[in-house]
Amino acid sequence: FGGFGGQAGGFGDIFGDIFGGMFGGGRQQQGPQKGNDLREDIDISFEDAAFGCEKVINLSSGQGTPAQSLKVRVPAGIEDGKSIRLRGKGGPGMNGGEAGDLLLKIHVDEKLGYERKGMDVYTTISVPFTTAVFGGEAIANTLKGSVKCKIPAGIQSGSKIRLRGKGIVSMKDPSVHGDMYAAVQIQVPRNLSPEAKQKLREFEKIVAA
């Protein structure tokens, strides 16, 4: 049989084709495969992130088919850079596999005069000079409207007034809110009358004494 040594591989291929096809030894059909995850970016306002909103996004398959409109609920309290996962809204599965997910990355626009740190919000409050000296009340603009806050006598510029519960809602517990901190900016009087200037000079002497 030595003469057939060079044909051993050929016989092996023949027998493999015959018996492999009979007993399932050939290529196996792939099972169900999950579809690919898709990623999209979505821009929302500072208020939408604080209170939640609904957005309509258009998804295209990139194959010339019409875009699919999808309504998305953005939860209140979401932070910039976080993602929302929509299960089953991604690429189609293969061989009966489930569809992939859609991941929406959130981009929150800035709001002039406000800064967010976690659940807390920072802003400024303008206080008249006399109120800073004698104490009183001032108006602070929160995310839910204007409120009166107490100004202690002798407050210094840059001091922060804490408004409890006026910050961002927790995504985990809607009954929990962060705080708002209002940095005091003292209004320096302008165009004073000679009499007013004299009174201030007298006040300065009393304070310095």
Question: Explain this structure to me?
Answer:
There is one protein chain. Strands 6-7-11-10 form a four-stranded mixed beta sheet. Strands 1-5-4 form a three-stranded mixed beta sheet. The longest helix is centred in the first third of the chain and has 16 residues, at 8-23. The protein is α+β, with helices and mostly antiparallel strands and 209 residues long. It has helices at 8-23, 46-51, 129-134, 194-208, and strands at 38-44, 53-59, 68-74, 83-86, 102-108, 115-117, 120-128, 136-142, 145-151, 160-163, 180-187. Strand 6 (115-117) and strand 7 (120-128) form a beta hairpin. The model has no long low-confidence stretch (mean pLDDT 84). The radius of gyration is 35 Å and the shape is rod-shaped.
What descriptive keywords fit this protein?
4-stranded mixed sheet, 4 helices
Secondary-structure blueprint:
Layout: H1 8-23, E1 38-44, H2 46-51, E2 53-59, E3 68-74, E4 83-86, E5 102-108, E6 115-117, E7 120-128, H3 129-134, E8 136-142, E9 145-151, E10 160-163, E11 180-187, H4 194-208
Parallel strand pairs: 1-5, 7-11
Antiparallel strand pairs: 2-3, 4-5, 6-7, 8-9, 10-11
